[in-house]
């Protein structure tokens, strides 16, 4: 029933399934089937899958990895349920009972009240909770929007604002905080509002394009044809045009909606998912998925159309031992019906961004990208690397793949220009992340990646923790408000605009790669609130039409004892939850370190130890190819002003020395292509065993690095004891035993020199005359000179 | 116009190459002679010069079998010896004449002999190999004749041969002058080098040299080969060398592109006695050249820049047959491999690419493919490098240091740097003479030390206050040498020593800072 997040799970073994696909769903799905279930709802604000059974609502957390415990349940009383949503602090459940009434129940006190429409002429189309500062819940009605603030103590909703509009239907996702209201004959005229913690933003009215089928027939746009998706922090609206067989792409800017091209579709039924900023267009009739990376201007699919794959279905027992252990807990896994394995079954509902709900079987699937398969199926190394570098969800996998690709193309001795461009991709990607890491914006990005890395432990607490997170968010909000206080007094339209900018920038925090070209961004403290909170929330009411038929039955019932257990857990978990979102405010350093681990960008260190070092070990033959690659790497790194890891310098010296290209090595040293360091100097000395010039470079480098002790020792070793003495005197090197100098002088059997060295120490080291060194060498000296005297 | 025919006696320079193994028998002494300059000297004179040299070599070998005599200083002449190959000797006889500024440094003259032989080897292989190929000696003689004469042409100053004299004591022949580049530019250059070298398809081990104007920027050759190719490039390939008539600032080469080779004259070293084939009308090396199709890579004004930026060597004898390739080839000393010499030039940059002949199965066709590859892959990079280097380039006087006239010489790397010639000429004759003298002494001292203990390098420091009150300074430390002249300097030794220290710290990374 519960799946572990495969994002963090090594799925390398699973890729051996062999089936051709680029996206897959992993068996077993999240099971939500409970006998007697009336309907399933998805609460995207809290990422809960809700099932109504008589007067109970059962809630399953959909954020991986879901804990193995049973769903929480709340009593909601009898009556029809058109839609149901938990408040963002999970204290209140909102239940739409009819198109006129919405019931609100406090989960802890069991208190409930029903909010009714005043006029019979207007229908409630739906409602959603918001973290907007001025209101808590928003009703979408045929006559417009009603913004309410919720007061738990006053047990009623307080109307904050009403926006009068004609609404045919609406779509909303919590992920984007965006509600699109359709109006007009063809329902193609739209008005959008964004209710984010930064405030309310009104988007300009815009029209969607629909091709005409015949002269007099005007197709009407349906809610299923429009999808709000978020990719790379940018808000898009996707609109299916069945007549033209096109999927139109609109991008929301803060003050404009711009159509950004169209994608061809090959099926009359289209579903859309977004996984890790990759757009999946399910051509349901054709049973295939097309993948697009909207980041680049290219509107061509990433890879060939292939079906969605169900993984691990045939043998739940053959999969990893971990899943076996899970089997014992949830026995129903093995009882999977055959029908459940049908891809694109009739009961499938696609939940943005990446879920599929199979209402017929009570199963919830999460769609995954198979990065390995995508990488393997595409021969364009550069585009694959670029694609992988933009992945965040499975960052470590993407990184491993990038490293493997880099190693492979070098080992295969691909033409240097190709490898060069591949290196460019990796380096610019890393450099961009570093540059952004230096700005506030970058920290956001850094943290974003943290949250993905920590998705396993952070998100597991998400639903219960949302309360605290929200509180945290409110804290941030208040900070924001004070920061933006000056703006409050501005003319409303103006301030709204400013806020749109904020929202836009806020959105950016939820993403990895940021379109820095777009609009000038206003950052505020609000963004310091846990980004995943905003990222992974969305809301599509499940089976709207079905639930619309249900009748309303108002009841008030006490909350069960279960709620208290929820509360207990909440309090225990709170600190853990607070930390991940709270730390960025305090310690950015650890933050960034963490982000480096979890992002696919490859640092110079990793480039050295995971690409060049292993390649060097594996590569045979003439090292000049590898040298050429390393030079190219130096080149790219220099362009991006990145420092090269000293070990790579050492490696380069080894390679050049191995092929006896000492002249080139000399050029590399003189021109400081290999930056001076002690490691480099020592390697030069070692490689200089066969080449005196290289050894001299090493010595010169020691001297220039002021490593006086080592330098003097080397001079001594080479027998230049007088030079060593002069140097030691000049640079006050006191760490070398006089006996070493004396011994060298003695070995040279030059009595004058020995006398000079002896005299030197007698003059400059107090008490030297009393040492055994002095007496020993004084005796030797007199023995050496006695034959001359005699 | 032939200078050889007119200047014999007055010039007082004789240059001969002979083989001790040849002409051992009475009456066949002429067979020893492989080359003699001036060419029109009577055989008797030629033989007496060679006889004297041979006698001295034989005599000194008794005491020093490894290194026989290096120089004879007679009252009016100096005989400079250089054993180019086993038993093949080159001897240069120069007249001493104070008035005519004929004051020589033996080391510098030896370097000339060494250079011409190294270049000869690079293009034609060893003299011994040529002699073995054609025991009559005609092949070796004609090759030597054209090559050495073309080489000496560069020393023509007006109608006189102007060999390196004391005025050139702040120069070191047989070394490479390098451009100093920053790290970024250096990486740019290296990355260009890799692209260029990867142009030869497959796993062929190409090598390359990159020059900026007359300065070396990068090499992937061994030190010896680098020196040779660099010397050749300076003589014939760089933009300055191509625009004939203008004299290079880094090399002594004045005057007109006159040639020492005349079409009409009859060479002296006729081998008719021993080689019947030459008794016929065909005794002129000029015609021998045609007979043997001697390529003349040192002939002036034969290189020109093609439309595609690659330099083309006009080959005169090609149509006769033999070589069907117009791309010249050179022997690399390090690998003993024959390489195609492919030269690309754009603005200030000269890129010399050496492609193994063995790797080019379809010869000229393959080369044009490589050229196309370079144009396709590297032209942008070449422009970029040129731009980058030009921006950082300080012009002819970039390496001038105010107040100093210096020569910095790294014997291990065969790299030297000196004050620009224009600045050296401002020195008085006295200073130059003193430095010349000092260099002679240092040369001697170095040689002695090398004989005594080859592993241990001598440290040396000499400061001389010359007659004209200039400081003349030499410092030798661990294979590096620094010579300088400080005119108009303070009179104390401390000042001179400080000046050296400052120079060393500033320009030599403290290599000469002793105490």
UniProtKB/TrEMBL annotation, chain A:
<dbReference type="InterPro" id="IPR040371">
    <property type="entry name" value="RMC1"/>
</dbReference>
<feature type="compositionally biased region" description="Polar residues">
    <location>
        <begin position="563"/>
        <end position="575"/>
    </location>
</feature>
<dbReference type="Pfam" id="PF07035">
    <property type="entry name" value="RMC1_C"/>
</dbReference>
<feature type="region of interest" description="Disordered">
    <location>
        <begin position="463"/>
        <end position="505"/>
    </location>
</feature>
<feature type="domain" description="Regulator of MON1-CCZ1 complex N-terminal">
    <location>
        <begin position="40"/>
        <end position="155"/>
    </location>
</feature>
<feature type="domain" description="Mic1">
    <location>
        <begin position="588"/>
        <end position="773"/>
    </location>
</feature>
<feature type="compositionally biased region" description="Basic and acidic residues">
    <location>
        <begin position="487"/>
        <end position="502"/>
    </location>
</feature>
<dbReference type="GO" id="GO:0035658">
    <property type="term" value="C:Mon1-Ccz1 complex"/>
</dbReference>
<dbReference type="GO" id="GO:0031902">
    <property type="term" value="C:late endosome membrane"/>
</dbReference>
<dbReference type="InterPro" id="IPR049040">
    <property type="entry name" value="RMC1_N"/>
</dbReference>
<dbReference type="GO" id="GO:0005765">
    <property type="term" value="C:lysosomal membrane"/>
</dbReference>
<protein>
    <recommendedName>
        <fullName>Mic1 domain-containing protein</fullName>
    </recommendedName>
</protein>
<dbReference type="InterPro" id="IPR009755">
    <property type="entry name" value="RMC1_C"/>
</dbReference>
<dbReference type="Pfam" id="PF21029">
    <property type="entry name" value="RMC1_N"/>
</dbReference>
<feature type="region of interest" description="Disordered">
    <location>
        <begin position="563"/>
        <end position="598"/>
    </location>
</feature>
<dbReference type="GO" id="GO:0010506">
    <property type="term" value="P:regulation of autophagy"/>
</dbReference>
Automatic annotation (TrEMBL), chain B:
<dbReference type="Pfam" id="PF19031">
    <property type="entry name" value="Intu_longin_1"/>
</dbReference>
<feature type="domain" description="CCZ1/INTU/HSP4 first Longin">
    <location>
        <begin position="15"/>
        <end position="125"/>
    </location>
</feature>
<feature type="compositionally biased region" description="Polar residues">
    <location>
        <begin position="274"/>
        <end position="287"/>
    </location>
</feature>
<dbReference type="GO" id="GO:0016192">
    <property type="term" value="P:vesicle-mediated transport"/>
</dbReference>
<dbReference type="GO" id="GO:0035658">
    <property type="term" value="C:Mon1-Ccz1 complex"/>
</dbReference>
<feature type="region of interest" description="Disordered">
    <location>
        <begin position="274"/>
        <end position="294"/>
    </location>
</feature>
<protein>
    <recommendedName>
        <fullName>CCZ1/INTU/HSP4 first Longin domain-containing protein</fullName>
    </recommendedName>
</protein>
<comment type="similarity">
    <text>Belongs to the CCZ1 family.</text>
</comment>
<dbReference type="InterPro" id="IPR043987">
    <property type="entry name" value="CCZ1/INTU/HSP4_longin_1"/>
</dbReference>
<dbReference type="InterPro" id="IPR013176">
    <property type="entry name" value="Ccz1"/>
</dbReference>
């Amino acid at each position: 029933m519960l799946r572990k997040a495969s994002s963090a799970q090594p799925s390398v073994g699973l890729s051996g399934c062999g089936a051709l696909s680029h996206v897959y769903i992993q068996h077993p799905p999240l099971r939500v089937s409970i006998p007697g279930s009336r309907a399933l709802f998805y609460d995207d604000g809290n990422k809960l899958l809700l099932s109504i059974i008589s007067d109970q609502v059962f809630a399953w957390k959909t954020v991986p990895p879901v804990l193995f415990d049973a769903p929480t349940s709340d009593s909601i009383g009898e009556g029809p349920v058109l839609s149901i949503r938990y408040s963002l602090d999970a204290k209140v459940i909102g239940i739409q009972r009819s198109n006129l009434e919405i019931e609100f129940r406090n989960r802890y006190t069991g208190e409930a009240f029903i909010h009714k429409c005043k006029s019979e002429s207007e229908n409630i189309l739906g409602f959603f909770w918001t973290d907007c500062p001025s209101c808590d819940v928003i009703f979408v009605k045929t006559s417009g929007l009603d913004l309410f603030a919720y007061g738990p103590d006053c047990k009623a909703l307080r109307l904050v604002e009403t926006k009068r509009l004609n609404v045919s239907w609406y779509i909303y996702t919590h992920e984007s905080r965006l509600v699109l209201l359709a109006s007009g004959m063809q329902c193609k005229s739209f008005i959008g509002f964004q209710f984010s913690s930064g405030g309310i933003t009104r988007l300009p009215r815009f029209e969607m394009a629909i091709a005409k089928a015949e002269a007099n027939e005007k197709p009407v746009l349906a809610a299923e044809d429009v999808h709000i998706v978020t990719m790379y922090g940018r808000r898009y609206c996707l609109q299916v045009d069945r007549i033209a067989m096109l999927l139109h792409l609109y991008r929301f800017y803060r003050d404009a909606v711009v159509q950004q091209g169209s994608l061809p579709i090959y099926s009359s039924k289209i579903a859309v998912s977004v996984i890790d900023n990759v757009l999946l267009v399910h051509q349901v009739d054709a049973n295939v998925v097309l993948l697009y990376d909207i980041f680049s201007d290219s509107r061509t699919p990433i890879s060939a159309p292939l079906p969605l794959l169900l993984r691990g279905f045939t043998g739940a027992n053959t999969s990893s031992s971990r899943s076996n252990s899970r089997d014992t807990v949830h026995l129903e896994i093995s009882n999977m019906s055959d029908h459940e394995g049908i891809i694109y079954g009739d009961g499938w509902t696609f939940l943005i961004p990446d879920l599929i709900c199979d209402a017929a079987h009570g199963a919830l699937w999460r769609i995954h990208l198979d990065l390995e398969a995508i990488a393997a199926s595409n021969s364009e190394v550069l585009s694959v690397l670029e694609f992988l570098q933009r992945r965040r969800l499975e960052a470590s996998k993407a990184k491993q793949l990038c490293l493997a690709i880099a190693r492979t193309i070098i080992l295969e001795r691909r033409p240097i220009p190709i490898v060069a461009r591949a290196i460019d991709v990796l380096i610019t990607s890393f450099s961009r992340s570093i540059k952004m890491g230096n700005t506030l914006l970058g920290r956001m990005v850094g943290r974003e990646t943290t949250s993905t890395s920590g998705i396993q432990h952070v998100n597991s607490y998400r639903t219960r923790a949302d309360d605290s997170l929200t509180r945290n968010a409110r804290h941030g909000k208040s900070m924001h408000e004070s920061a933006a206080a000056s703006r409050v007094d501005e003319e409303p339209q103006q301030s709204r605009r400013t806020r749109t900018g904020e929202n836009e920038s806020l959105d950016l925090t939820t993403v990895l790669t940021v379109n820095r070209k777009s609009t000038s961004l206003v950052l505020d403290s609000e963004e310091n609130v846990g980004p995943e909170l905003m990222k992974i929330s969305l809301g599509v009411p499940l089976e709207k039409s079905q639930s619309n038929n249900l009748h309303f039955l108002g009841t008030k019932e006490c909350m069960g004892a279960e709620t208290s257990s929820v509360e207990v857990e909440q309090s225990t978990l709170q600190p853990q939850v607070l930390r991940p979102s709270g730390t960025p405010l305090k310690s950015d350093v650890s933050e960034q370190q963490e982000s480096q681990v979890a992002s696919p960008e490859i640092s110079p260190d990793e480039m050295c130890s995971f690409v060049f070092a292993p390649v060097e070990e594996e590569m045979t033959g003439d090292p000049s190819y590898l040298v050429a690659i390393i030079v190219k790497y130096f080149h790219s790194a220099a362009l991006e002003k990145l420092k090269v890891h000293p070990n790579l310098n050492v490696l380069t010296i080894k390679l050049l020395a191995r092929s006896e290209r000492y002249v080139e090595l000399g050029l590399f040293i003189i021109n400081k292509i290999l930056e001076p360091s002690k490691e480099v100097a020592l390697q030069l000395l070692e490689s200089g065993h066969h080449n005196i010039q290289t050894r001299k470079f090493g010595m010169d480098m020691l001297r220039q690095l002021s490593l006086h002790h080592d330098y003097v020792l080397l001079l001594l070793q080479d027998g230049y004891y007088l030079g060593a003495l002069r140097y030691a005197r000049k640079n006050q090197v006191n760490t070398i035993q006089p006996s070493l100098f004396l011994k060298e002088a003695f070995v040279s059997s030059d009595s004058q020199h020995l006398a000079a060295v002896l005299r030197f120490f007698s003059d400059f080291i107090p008490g030297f005359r009393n040492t055994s060194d002095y007496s020993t060498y004084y005796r030797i000296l007199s023995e050496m000179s006695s034959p001359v005297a005699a | 116009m032939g200078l050889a025919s007119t200047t014999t006696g007055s010039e007082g320079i004789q240059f001969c190459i002979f083989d001790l193994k040849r002409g051992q028998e009475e009456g066949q002494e002429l067979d020893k002679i492989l080359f003699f300059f001036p060419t029109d000297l009577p055989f008797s004179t030629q033989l007496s010069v060679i006889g004297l040299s041979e006698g001295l070599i034989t005599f000194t070998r008794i005491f020093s079998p490894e290194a026989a005599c290096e120089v004879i200083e007679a009252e009016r002449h100096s005989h400079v010896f250089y054993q180019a190959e086993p038993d093949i000797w080159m001897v240069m006889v120069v007249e001493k004449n104070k008035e005519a500024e004929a004051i020589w440094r033996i080391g510098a003259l030896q370097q000339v002999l060494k250079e011409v032989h190294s270049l000869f080897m690079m293009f034609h292989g060893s003299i011994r190999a040529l002699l073995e190929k054609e025991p009559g000696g005609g092949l070796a003689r004609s090759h030597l004749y054209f090559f050495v004469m073309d080489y000496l042409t560069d020393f023509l100053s007006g109608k006189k041969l102007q060999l390196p004299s004391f005025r050139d004591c702040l120069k070191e022949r047989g070394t490479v002058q390098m451009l100093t580049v920053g790290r970024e530019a250096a990486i740019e250059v290296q990355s260009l080098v890799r692209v260029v070298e990867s142009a030869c398809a497959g796993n062929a081990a190409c090598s390359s040299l990159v020059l900026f104007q007359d300065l070396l920027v990068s090499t992937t050759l061994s030190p010896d080969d680098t020196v040779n190719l660099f010397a050749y490039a300076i003589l014939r390939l760089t933009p300055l060398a191509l625009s004939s008539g203008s004299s290079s600032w880094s090399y002594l080469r004045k005057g007109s592109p006159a040639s020492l080779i005349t079409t009409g004259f009859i060479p002296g070293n006729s081998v008719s006695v021993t080689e019947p084939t030459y008794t016929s009308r065909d005794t002129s090396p000029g015609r021998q050249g045609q007979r043997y199709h001697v390529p003349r890579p040192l002939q002036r004004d034969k290189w020109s820049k093609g439309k595609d930026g690659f330099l083309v060597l006009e080959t005169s004898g090609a149509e006769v047959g033999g070589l069907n390739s117009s791309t010249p080839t050179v022997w690399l000393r390090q690998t003993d491999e024959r390489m195609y010499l492919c030269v690309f030039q754009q603005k200030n940059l000269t890129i010399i690419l050496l492609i193994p002949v063995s790797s080019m199965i379809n010869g000229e066709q393959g080369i044009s493919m490589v050229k196309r590859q370079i144009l396709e892959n590297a032209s942008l990079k070449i422009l970029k490098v040129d731009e980058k280097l030009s921006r950082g380039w300080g012009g002819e006087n970039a390496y001038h240091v105010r107040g100093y006239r210096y020569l910095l010489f790294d014997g291990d790397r065969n790299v030297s740097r000196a004050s620009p010639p224009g600045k050296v000429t401002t020195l008085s004759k006295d200073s130059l003479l003193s430095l010349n003298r000092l260099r002679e002494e240092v040369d001697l001292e170095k040689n002695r030390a090398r004989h005594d203990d080859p592993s241990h390098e001598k440290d040396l420091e000499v400061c001389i206050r010359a007659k004209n009150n200039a400081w003349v300074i030499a410092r030798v430390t661990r294979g590096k040498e620094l010579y300088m002249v400080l005119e108009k300097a303070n009179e104390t030794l401390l000042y001179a020593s400080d000046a050296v220290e400052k120079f060393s710290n500033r320009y030599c990374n403290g290599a000469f800072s002793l105490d």
